[in-house]
Inverse folding.
């Protein structure tokens, strides 16, 4: 019985994945050649590739039709482990309006392989491995 | 004739087009829809949570002809995804703002209606100027339900089991009416806080160049106190609290009532409707909204306040009183203003 339970736990952990809702565009306030003030302001908004929300396996069951998002599903990553990717990059300096920068982690979508980019463009959804996640997630500067 | 018609169309187009943008959040939906309906499946399905809406819809509402954004939230499952709502993706103005509207039509805590309960403190961190929160519920996984950091905020007919917290960086105001919450700590600069017809389960602390007015407010807890520190102003009238729990420097009006016993329907479960037998709040309020930014004549569940108003979020209504859907009145008022301007433009064009 004990081995059966361990086996089931193993199967569950391997089979299940975490699902990310990822910001697919630059925030409307983003533009080329921003001045220092605009850069500071822009940092407080979502940026392209930000992991906006993390869901349990099977939650994102309908097709993504919203141009603001991609679905990126991570094979074999537990929901509990995935939650870290939804962390905020927080600041306590409210007087300088250097407040929370929405999300600490984001995907460098431009660094994805052309195949993955094409798939994202076509389906707005891809499934990747933990290794691909780790190699493509960037931590924003403090 | 055709030429003038073309000129008219051109002028109208150049004057900018204003719209009321309506979006939907439904916790029974799944992410990735366009949020344009309250459906829970299909391409036009509602957003699955308020954080997703904020991320998807962030925009400059003041550009072009200017727009107002209303997001209607529903669903019986708690919205607890995303840590918290960090409302900081829009550009707004007094006329072109965001209104977040829940669906609780009961005036009491309801587990069958939309409610937030996220894990990061505070549940709502608001940076958008002129935002309106209406008929929302927030549970208490964290202590602070809403912190206003920037700009002006209006809270109408909400039930927040947590507290309010200020942290504004510039002159700002918060207007709160017909709302149930757990007190406030005003601890930053140049703020004007107005609480009208509210029921508070907790304290009011005012400091750091803040002006705070309580009018028709019940403070239910015998332990909750009122305090105005460092020469700040806390004006209280037509309100009720435990007399021993106030510092002497508050500006107390002549119509306050102390040490009262209230008869609520079920305060343990956040139903602060007054019983007909109540002797603490029923018919002891003031009727004026003078000095308040918004003139209102209803209560938390839409009943019309009549006669001598009651203290607190609820106006007692005998059998037959019912909820009137609180449609987005602020946005509607703005739209009326927009439409008036547009009509004036057209009239001017016609005369030309």
């Amino acid at each position: 019985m004990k081995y059966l339970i361990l086996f089931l736990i193993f199967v569950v952990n391997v089979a299940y994945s975490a699902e990310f809702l990822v910001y697919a565009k630059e925030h409307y306030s983003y533009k080329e050649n921003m001045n220092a003030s605009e850069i500071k302001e822009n940092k407080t908004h979502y940026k392209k590739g930000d992991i906006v929300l993390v869901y349990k396996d099977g939650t994102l069951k309908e097709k993504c039709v919203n141009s603001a998002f991609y679905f990126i599903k991570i094979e074999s990553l537990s929901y509990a482990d995935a939650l870290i990717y939804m962390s905020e990059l927080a600041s306590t300096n409210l007087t300088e309006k250097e407040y929370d920068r929405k999300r600490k982690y984001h995907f460098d979508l431009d660094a994805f392989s052309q195949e993955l980019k094409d798939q994202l463009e076509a389906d707005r959804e891809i499934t990747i491995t933990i290794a691909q996640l780790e190699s493509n997630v960037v931590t924003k500067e403090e | 004739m055709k030429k003038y018609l073309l000129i008219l169309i051109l002028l109208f187009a150049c004057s900018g087009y204003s719209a009321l943008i309506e979006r939907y959040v439904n916790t029974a939906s799944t992410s990735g829809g366009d949020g344009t309906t309250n459906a829970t499946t299909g391409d036009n399905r509602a957003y699955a949570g308020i954080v997703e809406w904020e991320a998807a819809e962030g925009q400059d509402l003041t550009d072009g002809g200017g727009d107002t954004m209303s997001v209607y939230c529903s669903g019986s499952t708690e919205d607890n995804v995303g840590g918290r709502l960090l409302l900081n993706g829009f550009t707004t103005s007094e006329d072109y703002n965001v209104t977040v509207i829940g669906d609780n039509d009961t005036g009491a805590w309801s587990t069958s209606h939309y409610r937030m309960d996220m894990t990061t403190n505070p549940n709502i961190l608001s940076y958008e100027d002129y935002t309106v929160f209406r008929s929302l519920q927030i549970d208490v996984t964290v202590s602070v339900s809403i912190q206003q950091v920037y700009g002006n905020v209006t809270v109408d007919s909400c039930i927040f089991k947590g507290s309010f917290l200020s942290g504004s960086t510039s002159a700002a105001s918060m207007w709160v009416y017909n709302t149930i919450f757990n007190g406030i700590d005003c601890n930053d600069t140049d703020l004007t806080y107005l609480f009208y017809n509210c029921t508070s389960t907790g304290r009011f602390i005012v400091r750091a160049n803040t002006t705070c007015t309580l009018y028709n407010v019940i403070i239910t807890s015998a332990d909750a106190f009122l305090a105005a520190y460092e020469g700040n102003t806390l004006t209280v009238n037509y309100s009720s609290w435990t007399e021993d729990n106030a510092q002497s420097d508050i500006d107390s009006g002549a119509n306050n009532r102390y040490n009262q016993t209230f008869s609520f329907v079920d305060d343990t479960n956040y139903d602060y409707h007054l019983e007909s037998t109540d002797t603490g709040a029923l018919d002891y309020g003031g009727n004026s909204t003078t000095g308040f930014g918004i003139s209102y004549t209803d209560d938390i569940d839409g009943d019309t306040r009549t006669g001598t108003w009651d203290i607190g979020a609820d106006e007692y209504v005998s059998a037959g009183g019912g909820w009137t859907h609180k449609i987005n009145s602020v946005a509607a008022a703005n739209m009326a203003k927009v439409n008036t301007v547009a009509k004036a433009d057209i009239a001017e064009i016609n005369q030309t």
